[in-house]
Amino acid sequence: MTRRSAPSANEDPLDAEWKRSFRRRLLAWYAKHARDLPWRRSRDPYRVWVSEVMLQQTQVETVRPYFERFMAAFPNVAALAEADEQAVLRLWEGLGYYRRARSLHAAAKQVVADHAGQIPGDVATLLTLAGVGRYTAGAIVSIAYDRPAPILEANTIRLLTRLIAYNGEPTSTAGQKRLWAVAEELLPAKGCSTFNQALMELGALVCTPAAPRCETCPAETLCRARAEGTVERLAPTTKKLKFTDAREAAVVVRKGAMVLLRQCGPDERWAGLWDFPRFAIDAEGPLFAKDELRDKVRGQTGVACDPGALITTIKHGVTRFRITLECYEATYKSGRLNGATKWVRPADLTELPLSATGRKLAKLLQFTTKERRNKG
DNA sequence: AATACGGGGAC
DNA sequence: GTCCCAGTATT
Question: Which EC numbers does the record give (predicted)?
Fold first, then answer.
């Protein structure tokens, strides 16, 4: 185990002149290097809020097109509050973490009902909104309202950890506490909107996880880790997770031109989204799975079917699972649908919000068996 | 303090 | 393949 120097050295108040210098250099750098991002074109609190929620654990380039579409469909908080949740989820499809979309929609209703349609401008009130945590609240207060509120997220955790050469675990409770304090201490009295965005931008473009561009960093001579030569030896700012393999089956039950879909319940993964009947399977391979498929489709939908050929196998990762999804054909035999289940024409699947694998399978259904084979 | 929650980009 | 991403809520 490597001996680290005493953490107490990291707890010292930051030098006032050092802080001024850091702020000045950071802002000068940002003035030159800020990216043109759609959510930076105005400080409308609604736009900032939507962008911040979309950006939670999601990369900027991934969010960009989603943000544009979402704002076109729901240009203000009233429009979002009045929207149908299915429409909101459909626009969120592919972005992941669908609870964000449901929370955002619920919070929009909260804002209309409890705050006269005005997005709150203080952290404490923002924290009462669904899906708004300490980071997002701080981001809205600082970026949209240009008022002092610290932020701490992936980019700035890494940046600040290096800047002060934090020698504990940045992901620990103590580490987070310290880094939030640093974020607050660095915050200028004025210009918090630009400052916080600049902090994140520097983390995203220069103070990167791998191969940070220290030679071009405006804070190079102020950075304690750079001075110590520990930039790439500090404790990681993210936790790694181990994957578990899982085998699942999805079943395309056909009844004439229709296929069977079910809506995921509020307490399961993909809550609110639709998917083909889908479940974990124990049996090995198509020849042995039929009885199990029949039983589980019936249990999940109330419908009896006759399972047939394997259509395709889809591999994908979701949260901590590495899933191998076997997709089977089946024909309807009998039985009535239970609650959240319905028959849908394949062409109409475009209107439903589906999981990524559900969408992949839905797209395949547009083709004949022979065309699918040719696609490999 | 640990875990659940998605999907895709970058290497 | 692995790592990571403008986190939040729940247990």
Answer: 3.2.2.31
Indicate the SS3 state at residue A122.
coil
Phi, psi of A293 (to 5 degrees): -60, -45
Give the position of tokens 């102020």: A222
CA of A58: nucleotide with nearest C1': C5
- Domain residue limits, chain A: 7-228, 244-375
**A52 in catalytic set:** yes
Q: Which nucleotides of B are covered by protein (CB under 7 A)?
A: 1, 3-11
Report the CATH fold assignment for A7-228.
Endonuclease III; domain 1 (1.10.340)
What does the alpha-carbon distance between residue A80 and residue A226 come to, in Å, rounded to a whole number? Answer: 46
| A129, two tokens | 């909104």
Is A244-375 the same fold as A7-228?
no
Closest C-alpha among A336, A310, A339 to residue A252: A310
The answer to whether the beta carbon of residue A355 comes closer than 7 angstroms to any atom of strand B is yes
Amino acid making up residue A143: I
Choosing from A17, A52, A68, A228, the catalytic residue is A52
- pLDDT one-digit tens code per residue, A28-52: 999 999 999 999 999 999 999 999 9
Provide the CA A38 to C1' C10 distance, Å, integer. Answer: 33
Residue pLDDT, tens place only, A257-302: 999 999 999 999 999 999 999 999 987 766 677 999 999 999 999 9
Report whether CATH 3.40.920.10 matches the domain A244-375.
no
Residue A146 makes CB contacts below 8 A (sequence gap 6+) with A43, A191, A192, A193
Contact flag, residue A161 CB and nucleic strand C, below 7 A: no
